[in-house]
Amino acid sequence: MKVGNFGLRPLERVTMTQANGEVQAAITQAPQSAWTRGMRPIRALSDGLKAGSRTMEVDLRLAGMIVALVAIWIGFGWASGGLFLTPRNFYDVSVQSVPVAIMATGMVLIIVSRNIDLSVGSVMGLTAYVAAMTQRIWLTEDLHLAYGGFEIWIIAILAAVAVGALIGVIQGGLTAYIGIPSFVVTLAGLLIWRGVIFKIQQGQTIAPMDETFAIFGGNLPQGSLGLWPTWIVGILLCAGIVYALIASRRKRREYGFPVRPQWAMAILIVGGCAVVLGAIWAYNSYPLPLLLTRQYAVAHGLNPDGLVISVGLAAPVLLLLGIGLVMGFLTTRRPFGRYVFAIGGNPDAANLAGINTKRTILGTFVLMGVLCALAGCIQASRLDAGVTSTGTGYELLVIAAAVLGGTSFSGGIGTIQGAVLGAVLMQSLKSGMVTIGLDSPMQDVAVGCVLVFAVGLDTIVHRRAK
Amino acid sequence: MSIAPNPDLVAAPAAVEPPLVEMRDICVAFGGVHAVQDVTVDLRAGEVVGLVGGNGAGKTTLIRTLSGARPGDSGQIFLSGRPVSIPDPRTAKALGIETIYQNLALAENVDASANFYLGRELKSRLGSLDDTAMESATRKVLGRLNPNFKNFKTPVVSLSGGQRQSIAIGRAIHFNARILIMDEPTAALGPAETVQVREVIKQLKSEGIGIFLISHDIHDVFDLADRISVMLHGKLVGTVNKSDVTTDEVLAMIIMGKMPGEVTQKELAQLHS
């Protein structure tokens, strides 16, 4: 409610006139331009949506992104004559989104605290190469451990994560404690870490990957969960949604705070579970391709005729879900996340409040390094090789995903869910344009336009809100 | 063997407690500029010391050495007679020194309770933030300070000056401060809210908290302070008991840097011309 509008409706104004020494006031309609009149339904819609999202306590931006995502899928599905809207494409797009999405969750915290990390593509490349080197050369050729041993893939991932964390310590330390701008530090990182890759093994391609390690890439047949585990994941997610909504409502009620109306709870629970179960159904209705089904049948002594095996949820997508939950928890439920946002909102205030701002900034960079390493492992596993070019240009995709997801460069604003959705949205756009036959340069033009359009829309909506 | 008492012991009678805060010979320089030069002030429990002076007199800089925001270049700080070093705001808070800064020092993008508990969040058993408990406590404290405060879920940036001030004051007094520094606490407030803040100051004083009050408003200071320390050009002009001086005499200290004894009637009259 606005105080001080004296009961005037929108577009009404008070006109004061002086006649015979008396002041007279009258309420008149403000003149409207064609633009204002044309914008009226749009404004009414936007105001209505805002009021609705407030009552339901839903992030309007996030809801908008989900709507945009659905529109993209339906639009490209129609434009490609159904080619885009298949379980197989759903699987592929989701797997292809994972590396960028994982890194974008870390980039959110970096940008929120008013920094930037331009080195993520190179760090991803270096850690992917280290993971490949560890399993193909260092452990096996140099230390003579057996190929395919269970320790191989674990040590490979740990080595990559350790390198990522170390790079985070170096870059975060230089930024937070020495005070070199993160743009400069990570620009140098972009060059340095890419250069280091070529120095490790003269830039050779390292392949193939360990069999267990290869699960993380989501390549078929080994990279997915199959029918029943996928349903179980879906049911657990639904239970999580229901529990989280009800528990927070009960706690707020205990303290006597206002809570969402029941219809809003119902919409959120039904809507959330429908999205989850819909995705699970899509994964499970993707049958294993014929050739792979035959191989499976032969290996297990089954009759391949009429055998249908559900692919199910991709392993990297499950990993992304886990990382998303952990990052979401860190960001919104732990002091660390709160400090990151406070620093982004007002660095001086955060320092005066007694927050160790330097250590917090260092923490964001270490986290970023670890996430780059996990993305690197997934990428190496997906390519089934360590290549020098892994992650080239990814820094821009990651930053774009975070920004598309609502992260603000002025600091202090951004969400993990938004960044993940941003990554999926970009990948959907790119894949969709491939299926309707747009060439690669046009794809880049389109993605760039969408980025500016989305952020522009956001800026206009926010300006109106103030 | 002589039975004469040790003179040191006689000179320090046990009945006199050391002051809550004693800042001795504090110096702060920015580059070549001496913002604070050899300033010595003290503060006792249950006392309000007004710190006054014109713009650039060094009041805020002096006080920032106590709050840990900008440690002094030389000089010593004693708390209840114990020498302490305060290198950062965290240390100051651990020592029971809370500060309300002139610009309020709020994180604009988060809500009232996040600001209220910034740096000392309540956590649940599992180590996650207990937002509901924090919001509840914030509602209680702010409800007392400012009954009109309702917007607990909106970012601080969209709150009014008075509401923001309530948050800054609320969080300074909620965590059992022994020493409170208030830098222009009523600068952004309307008349009703100013009265509220004065009541809070009197209440805190009666609870035995020592308060440094920085203000441009000489009447505010005269109303609330027990003693007044005046600064000019980074130096301490002097500290006087409020009951011994008139507002004109304090004005003369602020403007001319002259103590009540040194200033002539003619000069006092000129203050009003």
Explain this structure.
The complex is a heterodimer of chains A (466) and B (273). With 466 residues, chain A is mainly alpha-helical. Chain A is built from 16 helices and 2 strands. Chain A has a two-stranded antiparallel sheet with strand order 1-2. In chain A, helix 3 runs antiparallel to helix 13, helix 3 crosses helix 15 (416-435) and helix 5 (150-178) runs antiparallel to helix 6. The longest helix of chain A is centred in the middle third of the chain and has 29 residues, at 150-178. Mean pLDDT of chain A is 89; it is low at 1-5. The longest helix of chain B is centred in the last third of the chain and has 16 residues, at 191-206. Chain B has helices spanning 7-11, 59-67, 89-94, 112-116, 131-145, 161-174, 191-206, 218-224, 247-256, 265-270; strands at residues 21-30, 33-43, 48-52, 74-79, 82-84, 97-100, 179-183, 210-214, 227-232, 235-241. The radius of gyration of chain B is 21 Å and the shape is globular. Chain B has a single domain (16-270), classed as 3-Layer(aba) Sandwich (Rossmann fold), CATH 3.40.50. With 273 residues, chain B is of the alpha/beta class. In chain B, the strands form 2 sheets. A 6-stranded mixed beta sheet of chain B has the order 6-7-8-3-9-10, sandwiched between helices. The A-B interface holds A 251-252, 254-255, 257, 329, 332-335, 338-339, 341-342, 344-346, 348-356, 411-413, 466 and B 67, 69, 88-90, 92-93, 99, 101, 104-110, 114-115, 118-121, 123, 127-129, 132-133, 135-136, 158.
